[in-house]
């Protein structure tokens, strides 16, 4: 599928299977989620540009590569996206964080914004949207709309699971935004849950049901 990278790394696939099990404890779910976030971060940053830096080792001076440009922005969609944040920040500790508060109106599944805060200079930074469940595509489109409105120019989306319908909707609105996901699941139920999926991520991660 165009515009999507499936992260088929064995560690990601193994941890995703553990996460799917309904008997998993809140603690274990949260831990696995964070670990998968870290592994996805490694994949989504694979092509970041490098520039040579002049450094001094204990033995000699040398040119050695460092990341080019401004620190990236991690933009979790609250609540589920928060589950990726710690794992990703452990790999890119200087990243900036933008918070996107969206909830899905339960009847229409339309995304409604209740909070948004992003760095002023977001236009100069790569933005990674942390959106674990790309289901209908409504929240993904709303989040990218809002980020672009605030000036963001280079945006990538990091998911745990996606559906073809969600990806198609995102690509119809934002063909410039690439998606990384651990898997594409086949179905969406009437409540907008991905099937077989992992259930309600916020509830499972925070133990609210
Ligand atoms: N949000 C969730 O938490 N789970 C889904 O399956 C879809 C959206």
Concise structural overview:
The chain is built from 6 helices and 15 strands.
Structural class: alpha/beta
Q: Which small compounds were modeled alongside the protein?
A: uracil
Radius of gyration using CA atoms only: 18 Å
Helix content: 25-40%
Principal-axes geometry comes out as globular
CATH class: Alpha Beta
CATH fold title: Rossmann fold
Task: Describe what you observe in this structure.
The chain is α/β, with parallel strands linked by helices. The protein has one domain: Rossmann fold (3-Layer(aba) Sandwich), CATH 3.40.50.2020. The chain has helices at residues 10-20, 26-44, 82-91, 138-149, 164-173, 201-206; strands at 4-6, 50-56, 61-67, 73-78, 96-97, 99-104, 111-117, 126-130, 133-134, 154-158, 161-162, 178-181, 183-184, 187-188, 194-195. The strands form four sheets. Strands 1, 4, 5, 6, 7, 8, 10 and 12 form an eight-stranded mixed β-sheet that branches. Strands 9-11-13 form a three-stranded parallel β-sheet. Helix 2 (26-44) packs across helix 3 (82-91). Uracil binds at residues 80, 133, 135, 192-194, 197, 200-202.
Can you lay out the helices and strands and say which pair or pack?
Blueprint: E1 4-6, H1 10-20, H2 26-44, E2 50-56, E3 61-67, E4 73-78, H3 82-91, E5 96-97, E6 99-104, E7 111-117, E8 126-130, E9 133-134, H4 138-149, E10 154-158, E11 161-162, H5 164-173, E12 178-181, E13 183-184, E14 187-188, E15 194-195, H6 201-206
Parallel strand pairs: 1-12, 4-5, 4-6, 4-8, 8-10, 9-11, 10-12, 11-13
Antiparallel strand pairs: 2-3, 6-7, 14-15
Helix pairs in contact: 1-2, 2-3
The structure holds uracil.
């Amino acid at each position: 599928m165009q515009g999507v990278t499936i992260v088929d790394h064995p560690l990601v696939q193994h941890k995703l299977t553990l996460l799917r099990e309904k008997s998993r404890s809140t603690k274990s779910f949260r831990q696995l989620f964070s670990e998968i976030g870290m592994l996805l971060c490694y994949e989504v940053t694979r092509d970041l540009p490098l520039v040579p830096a002049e450094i001094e080792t204990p033995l000699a001076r040398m040119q050695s590569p460092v990341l080019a440009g401004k620190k990236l922005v991690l933009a979790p969609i609250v609540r589920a996206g928060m589950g990726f944040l710690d794992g990703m920040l452990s790999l890119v500790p200087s990243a900036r964080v933008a918070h996107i508060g969206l909830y899905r109106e339960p009847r229409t599944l339309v995304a409604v914004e209740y909070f948004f805060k992003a760095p002023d200079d977001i236009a100069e930074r790569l933005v990674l949207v942390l959106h674990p469940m790309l289901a209908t595509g409504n929240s993904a489109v709303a989040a990218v709309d809002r980020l672009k409105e605030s000036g963001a120019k280079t945006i990538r989306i990091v998911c745990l699971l996606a559906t073809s319908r969600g990806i198609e909707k995102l690509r119809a609105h934002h063909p410039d935004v690439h998606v990384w996901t651990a898997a594409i699941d086949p179905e969406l139920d009437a409540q907008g849950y991905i099937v077989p999926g992992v259930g309600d991520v916020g509830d499972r991660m925070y133990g609210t049901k």
